[in-house]
Write a structure and sequence with these properties.
Elements: H1 2-10, H2 13-20, H3 24-38, E1 43-46, E2 49-52, H4 54-76, E3 84-87, H5 94-105, E4 111-114, H6 119-128, E5 133-136, E6 149-163, E7 174-175, H7 177-180, E8 184-186, H8 195-207, E9 210-212, H9 220-229, E10 233-238, E11 252-256, E12 260-270, H10 276-288, E13 297-298
Parallel strand pairs: 3-4, 3-5, 7-11, 8-9, 8-10, 12-13
Antiparallel strand pairs: 1-2, 5-12, 6-10, 6-11, 6-12
Length: 307
């Protein structure tokens, strides 16, 4: 079940194998066994990735629910000195890098890193104790969060433009949001109703951008291939997003300035959580991150609210 959810999230067997630290063959065997037991096809395999079938889409939310039940059951009998369970939006994104830096500073702290779907799922998991903390953009005002849930802004990550060599801005050192108006920005991984969709929707409105979320989304590598080959398409990525592309993909990261859009990452936790490593993590983040956002940056209205 965990392998099925990993493939659904990643869109590729190879990427899911890397996240689970197993071989791609093992991923294929697990999915084949699950499909045999259910007597349905869960994925359509192509040369560019794995796409959920209609049956796979119907099965996915139930699979996630089952994993949460398993996690709660295991957590209920773990000793007090268990690993600190932390959710990150993606293992190649900025919050994962923050956690890696934290672990280097505190190697004695045992971490259990998970990746939930969106902020709603993460807040629910924090509330019921499935996880200890989560790194997410928080779109809700504090008064609408569940009782006992606390948040703190820990990182404003600059957003960059990613283009191929034939794009109009490929040779630019920086562009402004106003200059991006009228250019097609392709982001097929955006899912309506998520916190990252809310961020990019408000960014598009604020600067008149054309952000195209039409899919299908087959994963990171096919997206990079398409951007690399196109003279018209570009995409947006976080400054700290770790991307590795094949040699034939001559991609360019271009800074966005005047103002710089920043993605507001927050830490979410329960106020009554007494895990000692949670306090250590909060203190570390408070000592390493700036207290105030830079005046030359842009964030959505919901990120500018007072606590």
């Amino acid at each position: 079940m965990r392998t099925f959810v990993a493939v659904a999230n990643a869109g590729q067997f190879q990427e899911a194998a890397a996240l689970l630290s197993i071989t791609q063959q093992a991923v294929s065997k697990r999915i084949a066994t699950l499909e045999k037991n259910l007597d349905v096809r869960l994925f359509t395999r192509t040369a560019r990735g794995a796409q959920l079938t209609i049956e796979g889409q119907a099965f996915l939310p139930h699979a996630r629910d089952l994993l949460q039940v398993e996690e709660r059951a295991a957590a209920s009998v773990r000793p007090r000195r268990r690993a600190l369970r932390v959710d990150v939006i993606g293992r190649r994104l900025a919050p994962a890098a923050l956690l890696r830096d934290f672990h280097r500073a505190h190697p004695e702290t045992e971490l259990d890193v998970v990746t939930l779907f969106d902020a709603e799922a993460a807040i629910a998991a924090v509330r019921i104790g499935t996880i200890d903390a989560s790194f997410r953009a928080v779109t809700l005002p504090a008064r609408q969060l569940p009782d006992g849930i606390e948040t703190a802004r820990v990182l404003d990550e600059p957003v960059q433009l990613l283009t191929g060599p034939a794009h109009e801005f490929a040779a630019a050192r920086a562009v402004t949001p106003a200059e991006l108006a009228g250019h097609r920005i392709w982001m097929p991984g955006i899912v309506t109703g998520t916190e990252w969709a809310a961020y990019y929707e408000e960014l598009a409105v604020a600067f008149g951008l054309t952000i195209d979320a039409t899919g299908p989304y087959f994963g990171t590598e096919p997206l990079l291939d398409t951007i690399s080959d196109s003279s018209a398409l570009a995409t947006l990525v976080g400054e700290q997003t770790r991307l590795a592309w094949p040699a034939h993909c001559d991609l360019r990261r271009i800074a966005v300035h005047d103002p710089t859009p920043v993605y507001p990452h927050s830490l979410i936790w329960r106020s009554d959580n007494r895990h000692p490593a949670l306090s250590t993590l909060r203190n570390y983040l408070g000592s390493t991150q700036p207290n105030q956002p830079d005046a030359g940056t842009w964030t959505p209205e919901w990120a500018r609210r007072s606590p």
